[in-house]
Amino acid sequence: MAITMSTFSEYKIEKVKVLLLLMMMMLGTISSAQNPQARKKPNIVLILADDMGYGDASVYGHPTINTPNIDQLAHEGQRWTNFYVAASVCTPSRAALLTGRLPIRNGMCSDKRRVFWSSSVRGLPADEITIAESLKDVGYATACIGKWHLGHKDTKYLPTGNGFDYYYGIPYSNDMNKTQKMTKVLYQNPKTSYYNVPLMEGEEIIERPFEQHTATKRFTQQAIKFIEENKRSPFFLFLSHSMPHVPLFASQSFEGKSERGLYGDVIEEIDWSLGQVMQALKAEGLEENTLVIFTSDNGPWKMLDQHGGSAGQFRGSKGETWEGSMRVPAIFRWKGKLKNGIIRDMAATLDVFPTICKITGASFPDDREMDGYDLTPTLFEKNESGRKEMFFYVGRQLFAVRKGNFKLHFKTRGIAGFRKYYNMEHTPPLLFHLGEDPSEQYNVADKYPEKVKELRQLAENHISGIKPYEDQIAPRDGDEIDRY
Ligand code: MG
């Protein structure tokens, strides 16, 4: 098109406007913090406890652990009772939470080693999209504070390589990089010096070994600092506690206080931490513009006796596929926005990503298989959850499947001793009615042969529809191996 005199002057005006805008941005007079469009987007605070059981909060029925802040969050929001993780150990569970995909689809699961160790050289594959990456694309400030456990040997695997602007925490579990051979007794009498775990800020190690007594306290301080510093821009805070994963540590203010012993002290400090975060949101006037989600990455680790938590009335421990292994506490709270109450519908951490995308307008990956459901119809209207099925994996193998109230186990796993498990195959498979028998005590396969058939078919269809991705966790030839 030829440029006339009038379009030429319009063109000049537009050019001047763009130049002015660029100059103002360079001078810092306009930032994303002052962009009203960006400011309208809600903040997301995702709090993840490590190995906290379904039954470890008062509001979920614990008789001796006192959790007033978790309870209050539940009373002011939605408390879910059928909420699952995608795996019963840290690495695959966290990968599923942050990518919205079953770990079999991105190699974040293994039959040889269930999680990354301190010696592991790989991490979350680069082409995986995390919640933080999606939110960053729409102007969010993002922080991961606490435990990561999705790879650490290369900076591309760290939180800062996966959409988080800021990282402060430990790259793997608090019981890794041991300085000596650990016994059950040593685990139960923890000392920071037994574990050469680094504390990192960004991509630098700032303390080693990480002083674990103050883990929850310091993660909380950093979380509050991040909220205060980013109150004007939309933010995504992933507060990923390293507790109550063993070895257990509480700060002086909490140690020896709980009737439940050290485990109770640790949970009560996590509860305190939640209270601090909620107070900070209130003080900054952000309560009505912030969705807070509180959950856990897997069920309690019961092989260390009282140092492990409680799955309430559910059977099983971390590492297995019983309800207590993968059903976790889950509370959603957004003042003035959610229909509060107890939600008995099914959901999973896999659903967090699509739900956040729906709420924030962030783009949802559409070039790959995703495994989640948008939970906003239930959160905002108490409409039925889209999730009717759940798949229970150990490593790369499907152990069980749930549809409606029925759950079919092809294999189960049990504890054979300190840090030892055994697998058991069930032919025919075991069927439990989770409505009548949430504790999975009574096999009703003979009573409901049509359900056995239906769930078996569901499992076969699921497996045939999955393209397993190469195992990223198991060490390969030439990889360094941990000494202990
Ligand atoms: Mg865990």
Q: Identify every distinct bound molecule in the structure, by name, code or SMILES.
A: magnesium ion
End-to-end CA span: 72 Å
Structural class designation: alpha/beta
What is the CATH topology assignment of the largest domain? Alkaline Phosphatase, subunit A
Oligomer: single chain
Order of helices and strands: HHEHEHHEEHEEHEHEHEEHHEEEEH
How big a fraction of the residues is strand? 15-25%
The low-pLDDT segments are 1-8, 27-38
Could you say how many structural domains there are in total?
2
The count of DSSP E runs of length 2 or more, i.e. the number of strands, is 14
Number of helices: 12
Main beta sheet: 10 strands, mixed
Widest beta sheet: strand line-up: 6-5-4-3-7-1-8-9-2-10
Fraction of helical residues: 25-40%
- What is the CATH class designation of the largest domain? Alpha Beta
Shape: globular
pLDDT averaged over residues: 93
Please name the CATH architecture of the largest domain: 3-Layer(aba) Sandwich
Rg estimate, integer Å: 23 Å
